[in-house]
Amino acid sequence: MGFFEKLKNGMNKTKESFDSKINNIFSTFRKVDEDFLDELEETLIMSDIGMDTSVKIINNLRVRIKKEKIQDEEDVKNALRDEMKKILDVADVSLKLDTTPSVILVIGVNGVGKTTSIGKIANRLAKEGKKVVVAAADTFRAAAVEQLEIWANRAGADIVKRQEGSDPASVVYEAMRKAKESNADVLIVDTAGRLHNKKYLMDELQKINKVINKEMPESSKEVLLVIDGGTGQNAISQVKAFKQEAEITGLVLTKLDGTAKGGVVIGIVEENRIPVKFIGVGEQIDDMEIFNPEDFVKAIV
Predict the structure, then answer these.
(1) If DSSP codes are grouped into helix, strand and coil, which group holds residue 48?
(2) SS3 for 116?
(3) 201, 248, 264, 277 - which has most CB atoms within 10 Å?
């Protein structure tokens, strides 16, 4: 099964929910007028896209409908897809890994799929011929190191680890030294699942950042925030909280299969101007792909 088919299958609940609402609007209204647009705007809001983003999409759509004299159902859908894609096309989605080694710092709350995402990204990089070192800096959670080690082994990546309860920043320091000594291309740093109301965890993230910036100041650095697409509006608040603590360069979307809340992605990107860099479309190690805005929009509308 190709990536688009996996994406389409994974986004099926979002698509079913979204399409049924849009089709219901078309069956209710005989023409594309203000009442139609009001109903469509409400549908976008109810699909977790968010109030401000939904209003922006409909305002742009209104201008296009008037200018292009759009009345046909499929033409409206095409215009809607196009407006959504414009929002998602916020920046280059490729990773900036221009130095040897480069650093990918992976952050997010517990349970969003950070560890599996790291394994999948490490696997992608290894397939590109890159040597990868993984730092097991989540020393707070029981079995976190063991879980990460399993994924690192699957991906063919080296891992630097210490026992549970160790200082995370010291693990990162040791991993940076190993990455330099072994001439690794990429160092991926796992971190403990953080909540914005857990100050000591946020302080630990700042400490890890300082160690990286001090020891590898010239290295390319990506800070990827992993978010669970199924959490809807809660994902938006997570992005805002983490933005205050780290310079996020990209988002990794997980668990979009089985949810009708996939539309939240559009609201997150519009509100934060942070690109989605990866999207998970399954549980296997190869089920992580570079985000494609056009494919994503086609999969939900």
Answers:
(1) coil
(2) helix
(3) 264
| Global confidence as pTM | 0.90
Quote the CA–CA distance of 230 and 129 in Å, as a whole number: 33
Query: Is 113 in a helix, a strand, or coil?
Result: coil
User: Residue with structure tokens 């209104």?
Assistant: 62
For the chain, what is the largest distance between any 2 Cα atoms, rounded to a whole number of angstroms? Answer: 69
- DSSP class per residue in 52-64: HHHHHHHHHHHHH
Give CA–CA dist 96/288, Å, rounded.
Answer: 18
Could you tell me where the DSSP H helices lie in the chain?
3-10, 12-28, 34-46, 51-68, 73-88, 114-127, 144-155, 168-181, 199-215, 233-243, 264-272, 293-300
Reported as a single tens digit per residue, the pLDDT across 186-220 is 999 999 886 656 677 778 888 999 999 999 999 99
The count of C-alpha atoms lying within 13 angstroms of the C-alpha of 95, restricted to the half-sphere facing its C-beta, is 26
Q: Is the dihedral of CA 3, 286, 10, 226 positive or negative?
A: negative
Distance of CA 133 to the CA centre of its chain: 22
CA angle in degrees (0–180, nearest 5) for 105-262-147: 40
Q: With pLDDT > 90 as the criterion, what percentage of the chain qualifies?
A: 55
